[in-house]
Amino acid sequence: MVSVNPVRTGYSAIADEWIGIRPGSDGLFILAIIHELLKADKIDFEFLGEFTNSAWLVIQNPGKADDGLFLRDRKGDPQIYDRNKKKITAPGPKCRPEFLGEWKIRGKTVLPVFELLARRYLDGRYSPEAVAAETGVPADQIKRIAAEIAHVAFDEPIELDTGWTDVWGKRHRKTRGRPVSIHAMRGISAHSNGFQTCRALHLLQMLIGTIDVPGGWLYKPPFPKPAPPGPKPAGHEVKPGKPLSGPPLGFVHEPADLLVDENGGPKRIDKAYSWENPLSAHGMMHMVLHKAWKGDPYPIEVLFMYMANIGWNSSMNIGGADKYLTDKKADGSYKIPRIIYSDAFYSETVAYADLVLPDTTYLERWDCISLLDRPISGHDGPADAIRQPVVAPDRDVRPFQDVILELGARLGLPGMIGDGGRPKFPGGYKDYIVGHERTPGIGPLAGWRGDGDRFGTGAPNPGQLEKYIENGCYWKHTFSADQQFYRHSNAKYLEYAKSMGWVENADPITLQVYSEPLQKFRLAAEGHGPHQPPDRLRGRIKAAFDPLPVWYPPLEGEAINVKDYPLHAITQRPMHMYHSWGSGNAWLRQITNHNRLYINPATAAKLGIGDDDWVWVVSCHGRVKGQVRLMSGTNPETVWTWNAIGRRKGAMGLSEDAPEATKAFLLNHIISELLPGKKSRLSNSDPVTGQAAWYDLRVRVEKCKKGEEGVTEPLFDALAKWSKPLKLLRFGREEKQ
Question: Distance between CA 208 and CA 213 in Å, rounded?
């Protein structure tokens, strides 16, 4: 196992080889591996031809409105050059696609996607020697990793004696796999170049044919989905007192899908789905406070939040968050007039709320882990689950889901009221889990629908939750052996997926080496089409929306003098506090009640810093104080710490001298939600997706002067206590007795 990570934690700690890469350079490292594979001709052309758009022809017409788009016939089908027929035609099961070449058709030059790909990544700028300095990974190591990948993929393939049939009716007697499994998490995506880095990683997997094959990276139901997926975000037309026409989050396919006004300005308070961050599928929560305070693009009346703790450890720029939540206008009124907040704990954000809706913990409520949201499926079949309350609340709290359903019914929202205007789910979320249908026959849970004998689809079953409880609170289905691989083109799997409502039809899902939707945004930036970005964003869109994976340096580093801030700084959540909800759990918080700044010993020695010293970590935005721990498993140009440990005094009922408030610290204090600069400040995010660039932070480290040690800074005023702090926390004594 090879682990690529600036710090040696998690998988890296047990890996056979650790590559301590420089933060934000992962994409360049991946493209250098691709460079080596192309040079060695270690490419799975059979996989590319059958399952990807690598052979589709791309129009080369610089300056024109169709430049970079796929060549299509009158039906709209993409075109390839077929070696057998010696002509341009639509792809099909009997075609033999050409991957390299150049042709003229209807007066236009066309090239296969793979030709464009090869021309780009065989360029010397992607060679291991060229990228070694930027990535911090020696050229010889990059070459060896590429050679090992090629050897395992092509010299040691796996073959299972399991036949399967593809969507074109072709019977495959065996199931072949290339046993190179590549996995990634938030580390590569939480950079301003993260989206294209993720694309580069998937490109590498496609080139060696290791997507959904034995020994490779595998889908988990309800995936795969067509690309681009649906639904699109709703919000083009918003009417007071009326619900949206669809979900507020979704997937943008082209400029016409953006939620912008007639002048191209954003319609949403977070500016998601605007020209600033067009493909922001999950919205841009980290920008809400700043935009609401600024009234940009419009002032708001109420800010309603749930358990995000956006006033503290879920916020970039904590000092700014404090200002945004408390700042007043000249007339004495708040710039954010009203704040409603729901939390199960007395978190830092609770203190700012005008109205607090105290939530239950997960032990006291019904929850649904649904295939419609974040399923617990394995690669071998779908699964979903419930949580049932096991402890009765002993205080004045209500499950937040119940509150939302009641509010919806009182507002008369169509999905939450039934006949006669009465609540559709009078029993709260428990009733909703069973009774809600996204579309007819499809609800939050797939198990025991209808009369209890249907799975996936079927009418709501009043006894569904009881069946889940009888079965350990979860449902699982195991695919047959001939459904478990190549699911983007596996006929038996796709028919099942259609029957479950995961896909609209059983058509093949073509893997996208080249992204035409991205090119449509570039064309808009070049002045084509009715929907165009503001002039100030044209260059940014042309650079970031490349239809083939591309690498560019993280944006914060490009906006500052990096000589003043020579180190990268990143945070990771400890496993026991991975979610902001978990960071409020008193049991989990006692495992880690303060954190350290981890520094490579050689780097620390150059700075005159030793173990246990107190230091200032300084960015262009501010500074924070913490205590050092030397760690050899750290990239020499990187410092890091755990997130979510530091608390504000008074939060969570902490005593004044609690280590979580006096010794623990957050790098969030010195990360800005805006990119550095004075003019036209944009979100500190990936320009394509709006993903917050938490890991782009650049800093310098200064040893504290005498007398500055012992207590972290900045220290905010203590929050008013809602309860008397406990000197000793004990849990379970009553049950034991």
Answer: 11
DSSP 21: P
- Integer Cα distance of 489 and 168 in angstroms: 8
Q: How confident is the model at residue 308 (pLDDT cuts 50, 70, 90)?
A: confident
The rounded distance, in Å, linking the Cα atoms of 641 and 595 is 7
Mean pLDDT of 62-89: 96
Which residues are CB-contacts of 733 (< 8 A; sequence separation ≥ 6)? none
Q: Is 723 a residue whose pLDDT tops 70? A: no
Summarised one tens digit per residue, pLDDT across range 573-592 is: 888 876 656 667 777 777 88
The number of beta carbons lying within 10 Å of the beta carbon of residue 472 is 9
Task: Please check whether residue 194 is in contact with residue 693, taking contact to mean a CB–CB distance below 8 angstroms.
Answer: yes
- CB of 433 within 8 A of CB of 366? yes
Of 691, 690, 683, 685, the C-alpha closest to 291 is 683
User: Distance (Å, rounded) from C-alpha 429 to C-alpha 435?
Assistant: 10
The tens digit of pLDDT for each residue in 413-425 reads 988 998 889 999 9
Dihedral over alpha carbons 476, 479, 484, 488 (to 10 degrees): -90
Residue 521's H or E segment, with its range, is helix 516-525
Q: Is the dihedral of CA 413, 414, 420, 426 positive or negative?
A: negative
User: What span, in angstroms and rounded, lies between the C-alpha atoms of 87 and 67?
Assistant: 21
As a whole number, mean pLDDT of residues 614-619 equals 98
Decide if 366 contacts 387 (C-beta within 8 A): yes
Rounded to whole angstroms, the Cα distance separating 375 from 212 reads 18
Q: Residues in the chain, how many? A: 737
Query: Which single residue is written with the structure tokens 């997937």?
Result: 251
Any idea what DSSP says for residue 182? -
Q: Which of 91-95, 209-213, 295-299, 335-339 has the lowest mean pLDDT?
A: 91-95
The candidate with the shortest Cα–Cα distance to 629, out of 658, 577, 594, 660, is 594
User: Which tens digit of pLDDT belongs to each residue from 446-491?
Assistant: 999 999 999 999 999 999 999 999 999 999 999 999 999 999 999 9
Is the omega angle on the peptide bond into residue 423 within 30 degrees of 0, that is, cis? no
- Cβ partners under 8 Å of residue 294, min gap 6: none
Q: How many CB atoms lie within 10 A of CB 451?
A: 10
With CA atoms as reference, report the closest residue to 288 among 274, 273, 305, 275.
Answer: 305
The predicted-structure confidence for 645-684, as pLDDT tens digits, reads as follows: 999 998 988 888 889 999 999 999 999 999 998 766 899 9
Dihedral pair phi/psi, residue 110, rounded to 5°: -130, 145
Q: Is the dihedral of CA 356, 673, 326, 657 positive or negative?
A: positive
Alpha-helix runs per DSSP H in 565-611 = 586-589, 601-606
